[in-house]
Amino acid sequence: MEKRELLYSGKAKSVYTTDDADYMVLEFRNDTSAFDGKKIEQLDRKGMVNNKFNAFIMTKLAEAGIPTHFEKLLSDTDSLVKRLDMIPLECVVRNVAAGSLVRRLGVEEGIDLVPPTFELFLKNDALGDPMVNEYHARSFGWAEEEELNKMKELTFKVNQVLKALFLDGGMLLVDYKLEFGLFKGEVVLGDEFSPDGCRLWDKETREKLDKDRFRQGLGNVIESYEEVGRRIGVQF
Ligand code: C5P
C-alpha cells in the first residue's frame, strides 16, 4: 500500500492517505504535548516506541475479539490502519483515582474505584475537551445510543484484557482513554493505545511509568515507556 498525501497532522501523529480509500497510514512522531498543547517537546525514539507499543496492544485486543483499526506495522514509525469515520468522543475508564478526577472531585489520588468509572469527553481543543454525558452525545448527534452502548462495552472489555496484561508485568492500569470510529457501519477502536493515553503505576512502588512523567517533569519519559513495553513483551 502506498503512502500518499498528508490528510491531517495532530499533536503527536500524522495521518496520510493511501492508494486504497479504506486505509490510511498513521505516522507516530517524536512530538510530545500536554496541557492542551501548552507544553510541547521532542522526545527521542518516542514515535518508534509508541508505534510498536500500539501495534502490540492492538494485536492483543484483536486476539481478544475487540475490533480495531490496526492492520500492520509498515516501519519503525508508520502503521497501516483502516480509515474510520471518527466519533468525536473520548471514552475514559478509571480503576484508580488520578488526574482530572482527583482535581474535579477533590478525592485522594490512588484510591481504588470499585466498580471502575466510565467518563465521556468531547474532542474539542478550543473548549479543552469538556466532560459530557451520553444524553449530550445523543442530543447533539455525536453518537447514537447503540454506538454509545457498543463503545462502553468495548471500553470495559479492553479493561479486562489490559488490566491482566499489565498486572502480569507488575503494573496497575490506573486509567486510559480510547477513541472509536465507524468502519462500514461497525464501531471499531481507533487512534492509539500507548503510555501517552493511559496511566500505569508500578504495582509495588506506585512509581508513575506513563505520560505523567512528562506532565509533571519527572524525567526519563521514554525510558519508562520502554520499561513498560519490556515488562509486557513488546519488541522495540
Ligand atoms: O486527564 P484525565 O485524568 O482526565 O485523563 C484520564 C486518562 O485519559 C489518562 O490516562 C490520560 O492520559 C488520558 N487522556 C488522553 N488524552 C486526553 C485526555 C486524557 O489520553 N485528551
UniProtKB/TrEMBL annotation:
One of its GO terms (molecular function) is ATP binding. One of its GO terms (biological process) is 'de novo' IMP biosynthetic process. It catalyses: 5-amino-1-(5-phospho-D-ribosyl)imidazole-4-carboxylate + L-aspartate + ATP = (2S)-2-[5-amino-1-(5-phospho-beta-D-ribosyl)imidazole-4-carboxamido]succinate + ADP + phosphate + 2 H(+). Keywords: ATP-binding, Ligase, Nucleotide-binding, Purine biosynthesis. It is an enzyme of class 6 (ligase). It comes from the Bacteria. This is Phosphoribosylaminoimidazole-succinocarboxamide synthase. It comes from Thalassolituus oleivorans MIL-1.
